[in-house]
Structure prediction request, 152 residues.
Amino acid sequence: MKQTPYQAPTFSLPNESGQTVSLDDFKGKWVVLYFYPKDETPGCTTEACSMRDSRDELTDLGAEVIGVSRDDAASHEKFKTKYNLNFTLLTDKSGSVLREYGAWGKKMFGNEGILRKTFIINPESQVVKVYGRVTPLGHGNQVVAELKRLQK
Prediction:
């Protein structure tokens, strides 16, 4: 893993509505970028709901929340609607952004796949905090506390 801070890899990916979203769209803002394996799975739903429940506090701190998986836009739209998710979900079908962020690799039992990771990116587009092997329950609160610490 790289030593923080470091320049965040740029990306341009489609969101749940098919519109392209780029990291450059958030220059001057804090970004909470999290990678998760799959819509509608228990751990990913728990993590998404934790981010949803913390989003207002994160917004008050000047941060945008973005979730990324390989699921398509239709799956993301259904997931957002079902759980009232109040943030952007991006589709990385090719997995190129997952790989650039180190969110693709060996999982349990030697299989490769998406690693549950979260990155806090500062307004200068630098990664200042990386959470590897995220525990989904309460992760939103954990990110809020860290963002407050980073902003002091």
Notes: The longest helix spans residues 42-60.
